[in-house]
Fold each of these.
Amino acid sequence: MKPGEPQLRRNLHHATRGIRAKRNAVVAEVPDWEELRAAGEAIKRGAMRRLDVLLEELEAAVQAAGGHVHWARDATEANAVVGDLVTAHDAREVVKVKSLTTDEIDLNQALEQRGVTAIETDLAELIVQLSHDWSSHILVPAIHRNRSEIRDLFARELGLEGLGDDPEELTDAARRHLRQAFLRARVGISGANFGIAETGTVGVVESEGNGRMCTTLPPVLITVMGIEKVLPSWRDLEVFLQLLPRSSTGERMNPYTSLWTGVRTDDGPGEFHLVLLDNGRTRVLADAVGRDALHCIRCSACLNVCPVYERVGGHAYGSVYPGPIGAILTPQLHGIPGDADELPWASSLCGACADVCPVKIDIPRLLVHLRSRVGGSDPALRLMGFAMEGRRRFEAAQLGRVPGMRTGIGLGAWTKGRDLPPPPRETFRRWWRRTRG
Amino acid sequence: MRVALLVTCLVDTLFPRAGIATVGVLERAGCEVDFPLDQTCCGQMHRNTGAAREAERLAARLAEVFAGYDAIVTPSASCAATVRETTDLGVFELSEFLVDQLGVEDVGATFPHRVTYHPTCHSLRALRVGDKPLRLLRAVRDIDLVELPDAQECCGFGGTFAIKNADVSLAMLDDKLRSVRATGAQVCAAADCSCLMHIGGGLRRAGDGVRTLHLAEILAS
């Protein structure tokens, strides 16, 4: 990985510090925060242990409430299900709630191939979509853009000459553009923060109200949910609706929490489809250590404290899941060995992420575990291991008398920006033997 | 009190003065120090680099070498954290041992220089030593201790990370060096020679006059 441009690094430094401070303040005012984290972890661990049972329970509950449930093994299957449903309703256009899961499967592109336009209705997602860019942060997709860039984009893409770069004016322009789309749309598409097995309730939390529009105005609603998002019972929401907003936006409560159970005849969409997506998740579940990555509730607190994320930016992680969570989730979702095997190395193991994770994922432990899975043991390291396993070999190595020891450990990369320490006159053990022996 | 010194392979080989100072501080605090000569490496580097098998062998070897000691003291927070996770040994990082086990904060040191202290990630977030090193430093006579801005930020070392992702590591180091310079300190101290090797290497390359010293070297003065 390479550090980003100075402007990007300044933007990220500024933005992540801001969210971090807000998060710390609202977390500090919760007296039982640590208990909440422990509860969140326990609920997630329990849910993953009974995932097969809970998913069937969820399916039955959704169906009983008048919804339809579809199972998708991978992105292709999920996109086919959604595409067929949209086509069956003759829709040329769908409105979307910001959803990482649909980004993960490239749903928008799949719909485009069928001649269907997907309109992102979250402000930052809209910015990213209009600029043919992709998200660089779980929560703040356009964190890498500043307001004058956004003004120029809106002026060009929405045909708004003379637009100012005042945030209110920009938001207003987006609102006017989107309002028409909400009223036209016949199909809404969302992801899901939670799916409650007990009741068949599906939920989305958001800040702008666009999610509420998408899930209530169009006559047809399609929700694509990763199978790890299932929670056993309604009461579990009590824990996650406290953990999530405080960890992600640094708010006590998110402005909009939309929860729906199947369909009703008198209100909201008359047709609801829930697509349960695997796409590598059962592969993650098969790893007894790595599976903790499935506990993630996508709050992005780990991104905001990560010194590596701050320097490289979200795009460097090559997936919709950037930062520390991406470094442990993406390689597992894609399969090891695979195209994301370098990601577990994108960390200094500083541990800041584990301290803020609302469900206590021990990210450094998972990183180290995944490093062993992607094949960490290179020849130089094995040689050093060998040298360390005997006193005489170690003492010879200390004096540089083991071939390969000095060249094998990447001195070139070290001396790129750092001098080596001046060699000491004698080793510690030599001093010990000389003075105490 | 009899204690065994786990000097760490890095200190033994490249930073013997930190080891010698640790012995000095412990002896001045009334400890009898043993140095089991069969010790090599705790396996942290292998463990963190994903060489799990080598790491396990080294941890098992270390447990054997130090078996029978009630207290093992090491001048490295990250090695202490590793040993605590991989063995049942009673291992303490130096500041933990002095403050928690011996109940000492004033070790009788005098150090008339401007010092800033960098709390390393593993001392903060793996061992949770909190302000123990700072309490020891505050009790040093004539010291001018200056707070490091953004102290809790990682310096960018991270073991193999410093080599595998050298450019990102150096970008993190740049910011740490900027903080160190802002203090006007003559000395940057820490509880891990590995991070100090990285910070010190950057300071020397940049031609800064700031020295790096292990916490023990100040406490032994």
Amino acid sequence: MPMTRIDPDDHRWFQRAVFYEVVVRGFKDSNGDGTGDLPGLIEKLDYLEWLGIDCIWLLPFFKSPLRDGGYDISDFFTIHPSYGDLADAVRLVEESHKRGIRIIADLVMNHTSDQHPWFQESRQDRTNPKADWYVWSDTDQLYQDARIIFVDTEPSNWTLDSPRGQFYWHRFFHHQPDLNYDNPEVCAAMLDVVKFWLDIGLDGFRLDAVPYLFERPGMNGENLPETHEFLRQLRKEVDALYPGKVLLAEANQWPADVIEYFGASGDECHMCFHFPLMPRMFMAARMETRKPIVEILAQTPAIPDGCQWGIFLRNHDELTLEMVTDEERDYMYQEYAKDPRMKRNVGIARRLFPLIENDRRVAELFHGLLLSLPGSPVLYYGDEIGMGDNIYLGDRDGVRTPMQWTPDRNAGFSTADFAQLCLPPLMDPVYGFQSVNVEAQVRNPSSFLRWIRSMLEVRHTSPVFGVGTMEVLDPANDAVFAYVRSGEDLDGDGHDDVVLCVNNLSRWAQPVELDLTRWDGYVPLEMLGGVRFPRIGQLPYFVTLHPYSFYWFKLVKD
Amino acid sequence: MDAAWLTAKRWYGAADRELRSLAVVDRERVVRGLEWQVVEACFAEGERAYYQIFWDDDAGEDGAERAESLRWLLPELGLTSARLLSGEQSNTSVVCEPGPVVVKVFRRLTAEANPDAVVVRRLWDSGFRGVPEPLFERRRPLDVPALSGAAAAGDESGIDLAVARRFLVGSVDGWSLAVAAADGFEQEAGDLGRLTADMHLALVRAFDSQPLDPDDTVETMAADAHRVLGADAPVSVFRRLSEMGGGRAIRPHGDYHLGQVLRHERSWYVLDFEGEPARPIAERMRASSPLRDVAGMLRSFAYAVAVAGHDASWEEACRRAFLSGYLSTPGIDALLPSDPLPLIDAFELDKAVYEVAYERANRPDWVPIPMAAVARLAGQRR
């Protein structure tokens, strides 16, 4: 109803958008109770607009006993009271749209909290109206082919529940029973949830844990045809009533399996996360060769028209190592998780900057990759200022500590007493809020934050990063990762759009000779500074690179 | 949407005027296939009216009662489901979960604040609990010069589109109760009298009061009576008013009768402060004696008796209980002349005169009901 800078007819906005993931609990506390909240996030929208992001992704903010960071929902229609109420959510949507920022939210389809009234009713006996809303069994021997995801805490995917004397199925924590999608009432109820939030004004959902909706004997319970059929139905409903909204699948799977979540004709999810890409970027930088990245890109099939990958460096979960080979996992642990406390489940619970030992050059290189590889980049809150983590906190809280706004008390996150804070802000000499905070970096023109902001500005100047094709070059020096993003006049200026990205994955300076003969006569313009580089000819094009440096060249006809 | 569709709607309310043109002057998509629209109707005399509709393309019908429409209109309420309660002269009411709440979607939009939205909110804020709790009012600046001009000058928050109130589960309206209560309605009538007085005191707190000029009122009422009843109209009933003084004038309910009150868990609640929707808002908001509302309710008892066939003592007992409840409420005497009964008679007669005219035009069989009141009041005072 209010003024908005969102174009309702732009149905493919997500292909060009930069996403920003926010953990509401740790972002900004507006009422001094020690926990971040929606009004706090509203206060910081001006900052996010200044930063230049296009869409906020909110972690679950629904009513929840918070035994799994809100992924254990006990009422899909209510905001968790410490985050605010529905009026705050409405205001958040309105205020974001005013600034041209869209909002998507996490939606957990697979399971609910065991505190959800649906489960409370279902567990009573075997005959109540919701008896069949969850997956119940007399034995815990069914579906033994399904792997256990939270291997650190859960011995089985079945838990015995005494009132009913049966086992219930859970792919995640035992307090998160899986909904039974074989029951059409459950499908209808979840569809109502989706409609409810889209009516409120959300611009879409990140669908949590979608591969696990259905289970069948003799299968591993992931990526079943029934799950895809449900997603097709969901997409159909969303497109019919809410064109321009986005469904983003969290399917931590190999690319050949993930691709299925777009649907054969792009009729399932608009976006999927590309999980395997991220650990390979870390491997490539440590091994000083482009091979891991090039291999995974080669294994990644083309996606249907109108779809997009979501790519990221880090997020609110551990750096997952499920989608790497055993050898690669050992290597990653050895290189990036020297302290066993850094390991969580099958992954490493660390933020970006500690993972790369606070090396500004690597951070810039990684963001250069993130912003130029095919897909829409998803930034994780705090990474834009180089926040650290606290591996001594439980579960994945180590990477969810309060956003560091200022060098003042509690990092400017909250005015509560320190002991009351949901999580302690970082105070160590390297990553602590006294040295790493938004306020200081906004003031300092050479800060990492200001650098990121200018990179986002540059990315927004060319649609080629969002929707252009990708061609990997194959120079002899394999420490250099070079590729061309291009498209046929995407920006409507009458010329083809061609961007050449050249990245040095090594900690030493590197020379590289690139075969650019196809662009004979073009001139590379370095995109950050607009500097003209020597004209491309028939000879190999020679570029030298500082350690961990990269270039983005716009190729223009001379 | 076409003219035939719109004019057939109960809330169109302009059947007596010549419709010249229709245009959608503001619109916004709710979901695909469902659009919120403000429709401007231009009439022969250059008058305009504005209607709020939710046009459902597939159904070729209004879809205001759809959950999507109501969530768009009142997102803060988090409504999960909705079902149509009633369509009335100027609005459509929908019961929604969770709550339950009742959302009243205003159909005829006006530059002035909607009286029902304003009065209920201010009554509640003044501490009066005899209205269903107001939860939310939706206002919006519209892209319509004729409407937003006035809004910009006065209230910048815009045009009233809808209100949400707590839904009283299991409540019954006073008319149905009275008709069914053959064994007597005294207890309820006494409660209703006290509630009515509390409502008037709250209206004074919320809107203030002013001295009532009886002469002005008397002239109008006498002229109406002569017009309807002819030369032998008992206008002396009015004349005594000039001699007595009139007490205070307040913002009244304006259309007070048994159909406008609800009984819920042994308490009464008052609904619908819009007044008579056919009259202009300024006129509806005009101050008048609180005893007009009292007379309206007394007339409503008489109708209940006539329709249900209760005996005469039923009405007499209810009148006595209602008036005694009303007049014994502390503080109410400050609004009334020292002897309020002649004034009540006068307003009752005025109401009966209006009823005679209305029944003659619409339900001639019913004319005896108000005529009996005219005869009674004339006999008493002559």
